[in-house]
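Re: weekly structure request thread

Next one in the queue (184 aa):
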Amino acid sequence: MDEIMEDATRKIQKAVEVTAQEFGGVRTGRATPALVERLHIDYYGTPTPLNQVATISAPEARLLVIQPYDRNSIPDVQKAITQSDLGLVPSNDGEVIRLPVPQLTEERRHELTKLVKARAEEGRVAIRNVRREAIEALRKEEKKGDATEDDLHRGTEEVQKITDKYIHEIDELADKKTSELMEI
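Done, posted below.
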């Protein structure tokens, strides 16, 4: 029983972490390296995350500077940024890529808010799937005779408490990101 609970908690925490990382990739009015570090570029024929082939910094609130370790990869980095859904236009001087982050329009803020809500719902669904798997595992334990009906009931309640706690955490993260997006 304890093993099932620990496994469920670990998987749920991972779902919350993934959701938080996805929220980091949603553009607000400020420039943060998290916007682009998960972009994949074609680095000598291999899809590679941008943060593994370049240094990403935000020297100003509205500017990202990407300095590839290999100058030959600058066109590939620019292509990946242009093809992404970020809506940013890169410029380079042969050494670094500058990525100005423009002010968000009201319409774009609302689109991004919808995106945040969708990603939050994906996180909640992932947590509910883990809950379902944990409850099924508890029922199997009861059928085998390794747990009583009371153990099943207690375990189900505990899984539900864990689920509620982490869904609330995702809701808080989504609310925080939404308020960031609506700041001017």
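The mean pLDDT is 88. The CA atoms of residues 5 and 158 lie 8 Å apart.
Next request, please.
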